[in-house]
Amino acid sequence: MVLIQDNKEFDIQFPIIIIGAGACGLCAALSANEHGIKPLILERDKEPSGSSALSTCLIPAAGTKLQKKAGIEDTPEIFSSDIINKARNENDQNMVRFIAKESAPTVDWLIDNNVPLDLVTGFFYPGHSQYRMHGSPNRTGTELMDALIKKISQKKIDLMTSALVSNIYFNSDKIITGVEITRPNGNRENVGCKSLILACNGFGGNSEMVKKYIPEMANALYFGHTGNRGDAIKWGIEIGASISDIGSYQGHGAVTHPHGTLLFWGLMTQGGFQVNIKGKRFSNEVRGYSEQAVDVISQENSYVWEIWDSNGHELGMDFVDYRNGSDLKAHKTAKDINEISFLTKIPLKSLEKTFEYINHCIKHKTKDNFGRDWSNIKKMTKPFYFAKVTGALFHTQGGLDINSLAQVLDKNGKPFPNLFAGGGAARGLSGPSRWGYLSGNGLLTAVVLGKVAGRSAAKKIINNDY
Ligand SMILES: Cc1cc2nc3c(=O)[nH]c(=O)nc-3n(C[C@H](O)[C@H](O)[C@H](O)COP(=O)(O)OP(=O)(O)OC[C@H]3O[C@@H](n4cnc5c(N)ncnc54)[C@H](O)[C@@H]3O)c2cc1C
What we know:
This protein is α/β, with parallel strands linked by helices. It has helices at 23-34, 50-54, 65-69, 76-86, 93-112, 141-154, 207-213, 231-239, 266-269, 289-297, 310-316, 320-327, 337-344, 348-363, 441-462; strands at residues 2-4, 12-19, 40-42, 58-60, 118-120, 133-135, 158-160, 164-170, 176-182, 188-198, 221-222, 243-244, 249-256, 273-275, 304-308, 332-334, 384-396, 399-400, 407-409, 415-421. The radius of gyration is 23 Å and the shape is elongated.
């Protein structure tokens, strides 16, 4: 809740409070510290993890030092146009351009802060026209989080865990004055601040809000951090903040069932495909994994089979999630189509027909009936791999409108002077729906806007600009 009180007194005061210790909150803290102000980070969990730790840690950026070293010519303009095209021109294009411009300095800055990132090459994620994904060695968000937390501790920045922010204090001049923290034993503490950064992600972990704003995913598996209950958005609604694209989200069409491991989408862009229990394909899989989630859960029994080949398997071994899926036997192998049919109970004739059609498209370098282009795909190499998969909600993309200082805006476009937001708390770059999400834009907005929010909040304090 937002508690409106003038002249509220606090026992203790911090210059900047950051709510949430995911990638956004930790980047905000490092950035504020770098600009001369030590913040306090408040995290509801005992150990910080957030969706950031669950992620595959792939962060796109255009014009980084790693790209230059690899001879890849990429620019914020090319990146912006990829983001805008994916969202069919329906996203906030000024924000897209701003974030694309900040992407390379931010990834270079992460590397300077000892976050281990390398350039991911070998396959493209849907919608990206250049090799620009930067990933940690095992492609897992725990590596990102471990590196950021280590830096926070080296810089002696206060990180208070088991500290759920239950209410925020606001006065009649639209200034945030502090927050109320609730401890696991129910004890409450009030802490004052000069600026507040909302880095507590969206509402994927709040089933009521998902039902209200994203009804198509109300019954889907939620694969993100359950502690993300939409607090930033709820507070924003109460203070009259502008909120956009509330129905937008990142879905994923390939979570193994029932093992719950993730299949990376490079399997698709390298020639993998999905069939329903009747052995029929049902969509153009390479449009993107986000929009595929709904297509998958609307098939009979809400699951489908993903099939890929030994080349995809080789690529997958770079990803810890993929290796986990292999270890758990979520992925099976088959020497031929007969064996896939036998093990999956998909009717053989129908499966053979699907393979024949794909081979035809590959041979003739054509598009298929769903518009998928097979011209650059090689014929599948045996053994085949397959897994039962379902669709899931990963994170929400709608959120608080902000300006290029990451200040939260009211409904007239006027900034709240000392309230900032980033990551999943802010409006994403995907436009209004599931199909606009371009791979990597979740962490991109977390790290870029975290860095921007920390810098802006610190500068405001140093310049006494209130
Ligand atoms: C399986 C999976 C894979 C993904 N892979 C990628 C990828 O490779 N690339 C990519 O770009 N994106 C990916 N994403 C999306 C990405 O993880 C998120 O967009 C990103 O982590 C958001 O960062 P954040 O800091 O905003 O939120 P989070 O990392 O979720 O951090 C928010 C923190 O706020 C805390 N919090 C919430 N409410 C409160 C409160 N009231 N008080 C105190 N603390 C609170 C939470 O406990 C949490 O720790 C993936 C998501 C999932 C689920």
